[in-house]
Structures are given as C-alpha cells and as structure tokens.
C-alpha cells in the first residue's frame, strides 16, 4: 500500500482520516495513517491551542494534520451577532416550529449553546495561526483553495496544503493557486460534496492535474477494497471521514453519542441526502425527520453560508441534547450502510490494510 504520499508525510499507510475528534485523529496517526483534526468546531482559539498541544503529546511523535473551512474569496463579514440581523424572521419561525413539531426540547440551564464562529473566515484564519504554533505537517481546506496568502503562510511554516475538489476545473484552479495535494471528493461523500461520483471523478482529476500533483481519492471509502479501487484509479492515497464516526474513540466527543450510534448502525447506503440545510452549501447528511422537514412543501429555502449555520446552530445543539436517533442532524456519506458496528480506530485501520492486501491478491490471481 506504500505510495509517495507515505514518504511525503512519514506515514506507514496512505490513509488520511478527517475527524472532528482529536482522540480519533491521534489514534489514526498512531496506527500508521495521518489523522486530520477538523477545526471548525472550535469557537475558542485557546481551546484549539490546548487540543493541538494534546495532539502533539498523544501521537507518539507521529505526524498529523488539521482541516479548516475557509473560502477562497474573502467574504464581507462581521461578528455572528452582526450577521444574525440578515436572517429572515420566517426562517427563525420555521426552525422553532419544526423543533416543536419534532418534540425537540429547549436546552436546559447549563447545556452548551455553542455558536458557529468556526465557519467564519476570520476565525478560520486564526485556526491557521494557532496550527502553525504546533507540529501538523498538513493543512486541508474543506472549501477548496484557501486564499493565496494563507497557502504561502503554510508553506513558509513547512506545511503541505490540500484542498477538496468536486470537478477537474476546481482541481486545476487549486494547483494554480499553489495547493500541493488535491482531494477528489466524490458525490458519495459526507459533508460538503459535489455532483460527480468518485469512480468518475478520481481519474478525471488525476489526468487533469498530471503526474506531479498527488491526488487523494475521497467519497464512499470504508473498506480496503475501496482503498484499492481508489489507488487503481490513479490516486496516491485516500481521504476518509464517515467511517471514523463509528469508532469507540469518537465517543469522547460527546456524552450524547447513543442516538448517533443507533442512527448510523441501522442506516443503509440509501439513508442519506445531499442538501443545503446544514451549512448553506450542498452537503450530504443522514436522512432524518429534521432533513425531511426542510424538504416539505412550504419550507423556506436554506440561506447562504454562513447565515444558515447561524440559523440552525442552536437547533443542532438542541437536537444533540435530545439524543433522539430519528431527528439527529449529522453529516455522513453513503458508506454509512457499512457502518453497522462500533470498533476501535486501530481495528478499523487494521481492516483497511488487510482488506486492501486481500483485494490486491485477488486481482493478481485474475491477472494470472
């Protein structure tokens, strides 16, 4: 399974794992992959600093990465309070009425009311500044190319920069901006994703950017067979995400994990939907009563990012606190249909590697 990406980052396997959990990210790095910590949940730069210090100390000296959410074009934005004035009252009313209809109770006194500052461009820049004070080797941007000055800042700090792409033209634009590694994010993926399936997208992007630019395949990857398929399509490695939501280490992220585990272990690959209700940009989520409510006749159209984030922030906190698997709002890819048990990260990594080896051996037999 060794590819040039392994030598680039000093890792054993070309498996990169995006996750909002530092416990998952550290476990992936310790198991020979590259754990990539999603920073968007951090509204407090001091908390991110503490978390990255923890990563520095709990990865056995092995490399890790970080992921930020930063649009190439710098938006005009103020604080979340300033922006909330642009949210229509009809949208606020719809959210309140929908939560009432779905039986989602208000937050109790003392329960978290985290906002969505991590989705703001200014906060994403501060995430980069904090990351450069630690020892990640890679920084990825979930919304394509970060601004060129940020790319240059990361290069000056010794970090490689990656960006997600949903079409060959996006990949070419990223390379022109100075991005080092392209993540070909197929339609099957959880979270923000484009309209082209990975079977078509990966080779299209590999051919577009040429042999000197490493490409990671992403979208629908949760087994060693799928890792082998991605490498066969020309990728140098894989970018995985959803599969790590079903790990024991992910439980450390929230006390209310039982509803999520119930929801994903019973889901099939058909139980997701690509919608703008989560952030304002197309993202694949688990299909639940919450997503279905937004698709009903008379429901308002989702607002653009970051207004949609601000609109649904407290709703999502209430949904998490309610611990109801029928309502939960969670980005996840179509691979959810294979996530039917909770396992330690090390077991998932071991399975990816052994299944890859079995797939390659089977293909070699076909070759005669």
Automatic annotation (TrEMBL):
It holds the Pfam family NMO. InterPro entries: Aldolase_TIM, NMO. GO terms for molecular function: dioxygenase activity; nitronate monooxygenase activity. It comes from the Bacteria. Keywords: Dioxygenase, Flavoprotein, FMN, Oxidoreductase. SUPFAM superfamilies: Inosine monophosphate dehydrogenase (IMPDH). This is NAD(P)H-dependent flavin oxidoreductase YrpB (Nitropropane dioxygenase family). It comes from Nocardioides marinus.
């Amino acid at each position: 399974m060794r590819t040039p990406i392994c030598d680039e980052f000093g890792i054993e396997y070309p498996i990169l794992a995006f996750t909002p959990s530092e416990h998952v990210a550290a476990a992936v790095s310790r198991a020979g992959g590259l754990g990539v910590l999603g920073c968007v949940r951090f509204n407090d730069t001091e908390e991110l600093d503490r978390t990255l210090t923890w990563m520095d100390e709990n990865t056995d000296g092995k490399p890790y990465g970080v992921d930020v959410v930063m649009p190439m074009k710098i938006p005009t934005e103020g604080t979340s309070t300033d922006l909330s004035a642009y949210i229509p009252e009809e949208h606020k009313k719809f959210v309140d009425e929908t939560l009432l209809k779905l039986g989602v109770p208000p937050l109790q006194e003392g329960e978290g009311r985290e906002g969505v500052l991590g989705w703001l461009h200014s906060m994403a820049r501060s995430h980069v500044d904090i990351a450069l004070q630690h020892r990640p080797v890679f920084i990825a941007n979930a919304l394509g190319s970060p601004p060129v000055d940020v790319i240059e800042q990361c290069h000056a700090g010794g970090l490689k920069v990656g960006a997600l792409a949903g079409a060959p033209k996006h990949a070419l634009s990223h390379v022109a901006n100075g991005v080092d590694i392209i993540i070909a994010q197929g339609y099957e993926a959880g979270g923000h994703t484009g309209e082209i399936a990975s079977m078509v997208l990966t080779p299209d992007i590999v051919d577009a950017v040429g042999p000197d630019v490493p490409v990671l395949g992403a979208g629908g990857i949760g087994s060693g067979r799928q890792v082998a398929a991605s490498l066969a399509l020309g990728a140098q490695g894989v970018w995985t995400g959803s599969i790590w939501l079903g790990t024991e280490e992910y439980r450390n992220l929230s006390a209310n994990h039982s509803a999520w585990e119930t929801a994903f272990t019973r889901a099939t690959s058909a139980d997701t939907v690509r919608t703008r209700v989560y952030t304002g940009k197309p993202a694949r989520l688990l299909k639940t009563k919450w997503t279905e409510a937004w698709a009903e006749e008379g429901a308002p159209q989702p607002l653009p990012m970051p207004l949609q984030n601000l609109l649904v922030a407290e709703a999502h906190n209430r949904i998490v606190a309610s611990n109801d698997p029928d309502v939960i709002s969670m980005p996840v890819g179509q691979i959810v249909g294979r996530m039917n048990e909770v396992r330690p990260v090390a077991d998932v990594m071991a399975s990816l590697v052994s299944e890859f080896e079995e797939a390659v051996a089977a293909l070699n037999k076909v070759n005669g």
